[in-house]
Specification:
With 313 residues, the chain is α/β, with parallel strands linked by helices. It has a single domain, classed as Vaccinia Virus protein VP39 (Rossmann fold). It is built from nine helices and nine strands. It has a seven-stranded mixed β-sheet with strand order 3-2-1-4-5-7-6, sandwiched between helices. Helix 2 crosses helix 3. The longest helix has 21 residues.
Length: 313
């Protein structure tokens, strides 16, 4: 079974439909006065993870996807916890590198371990959520993101259109490197083995040079023993034109030491990596500037004209 196909089928965002269907079945606490849910909505990776981690923001389609993950990997709950810990560590790494703009592609707002929650201690950092379905967008709007954060209704699998929407939302004011948070992105693909490189390559073509990619491999591949998942993820990232920074490892082994609790090394967690966009600068044909003729006035008393000296090579 391809666990990635669990979240792959999605309809176009219908924000009005999402906001018209609110019910508090999974509501707890005081963060919300209502919860947007579509009964037959498509699954979204971040909400499926939220279900496995005992969160309250998930629809029936998300819960069904999470159960399919558990059928493939009985330790999926610990595996996704390892992914959330990796996401936090990678975001801290990006901040240490001076990147303050984050673009989330597959986690979502206000789920357990949401990126905006991880940035509460970094008030200078900003995140934009790319929401591929109406429910993800409605949740982001209902949560009331801080003014420095944003959410756009766009498909992360169509990078040019999504980036255009982000630029519109930003009013075109940002040209600095961003960190693409693509943890769980493979779960949106029907066939990650053939589609992931194309999607990553397209994102690389639109983000500013020097941007970072925070990526996880398919959850279904986590149960495969040995280093093959790591090698395949590294090849895919490099095929897409990104430069892998450091080693490609399983999620719990990437810069370990979590305040949320370490996940045992034997848990079959997905491969993860951090990569850098090093899009080559187009060559420029440089020519030395052509000097203008110099005019040297004569000092002889017999003339007041000037003599033009030829071009200086």
């Amino acid at each position: 079974m391809n666990a990635g196909a669990a979240c792959a089928d999605r309809a176009a965002p219908d924000v009005a439909a999402a906001e018209d269907q609110w019910y508090p079945e999974h509501y707890s606490g005081t963060w919300y006065t209502r919860l947007a849910t579509i009964a037959d909505g498509a699954a979204f990776p971040g909400r499926a993870v939220d279900y496995l981690l005992d969160g309250h923001l998930h629809a029936p389609g998300d819960r069904a996807a999470a159960r399919r993950w558990l059928a493939v990997n009985p330790q999926a709950t610990q595996a996704v916890l390892a992914l959330r810990n990796f996401l936090r560590r990678a975001m801290e790494d990006a901040l240490d590198r001076g990147v303050i703009d984050f673009v989330d592609l597959a986690t979502g707002a206000d789920v357990i371990g949401a990126p905006d929650a991880m940035l509460r201690t970094s008030p200078w950092a900003r995140i934009s959520y790319v929401c591929p379905d109406a429910l993800a967008f409605a949740i982001a709007r209902a949560e009331g993101l801080a003014a420095r954060h944003h959410a756009v209704a766009a498909d992360p699998l169509t990078p040019v259109a999504a980036w255009t929407q982000l630029l519109i939302d930003w009013r075109g004011r940002r040209s600095t490197p961003v960190a693409l948070l693509a943890v769980g992105l493979t779960e949106l693909l029907a066939d990650p083995a053939t589609d992931l490189a194309a999607v990553l390559g397209a994102w690389r073509g639109v983000v500013p040079q020097g941007s970072l990619l925070v990526l996880s491999g398919p959850l279904g591949d986590a149960v495969r023993p040995g280093p093959d998942p790591e090698h395949e993820l590294e090849r895919t990232v490099e095929q897409a034109g990104w430069t892998v920074l450091g080693a490609v490892e399983r999620a719990q082994s990437w810069q370990p030491g979590d305040r949320w609790g370490d996940v045992p090394a034997e848990v079959p967690a997905p491969a993860v990596c951090l990569a850098l966009s090093t899009r080559p600068v187009p060559p420029v044909l440089w020519r030395p500037p052509r000097a203008q003729p110099l005019t040297i006035p004569r000092t002889a008393p017999t003339t007041t004209s000037s003599e033009t000296v030829g071009d200086i090579p």
